[in-house]
Amino acid sequence: MKKKIQCEGYRRRGGVFTLGPVSWSQCSNQATVQLTVTQERQTKTFPACEVCWKEALRSSVIKIKKAEPL
After folding, report:
1. Residue 1's pLDDT is what?
2. FRET partner for 22 with CA separation of 20 to 30 A, picked from 1, 2, 9, 51?
3. Within-domain flag for 5
4. Has residue 64 been placed in a domain?
5. pTM over 0.85
6. Total number of domains in the chain
7. Structural domain for 65, as ranges
């Protein structure tokens, strides 16, 4: 039986143009890929779901170096 791995993406809520303080919450989806990304001069590998993967592709701050299926 394959072990389920949770996505390690985070979502920001609140802040500049919305009411309330900024808060971060971890994505609750199951991971489908291992992403190797570079952000702020640091390269790391972590599990991600399809939603977070697509969001990273649209980001100008995150550069995807490698994506491997789980």
Report:
1. 57
2. 51
3. no
4. yes
5. no
6. 1
7. 10-69
**Cα 69 to Cα 52: distance, rounded to the nearest angstrom:** 14
The amino acid present at 19, given as its one-letter code, is L
Query: What residues are paired with 10 via a beta bridge?
Result: 26
Q: What is the DSSP string of 2-60?
A: PPP-B---EEEESSTTSSS--EEEE--SBP-EEEEEEETTEEEEEEE-HHHHHHHHH-S
Model pLDDT, residue 21: 85
For residues 44 and 35, give the distance between their C-alpha atoms in angstroms, rounded to a whole number.
Answer: 8
Going residue by residue through the chain, which has 70 residues, state the pLDDT in tens, using 9 for 90 and above: 567 899 999 988 877 777 778 889 999 999 999 999 999 999 999 999 999 999 999 999 999 999 999 9
CB 52 within 8 A of CB 39: no
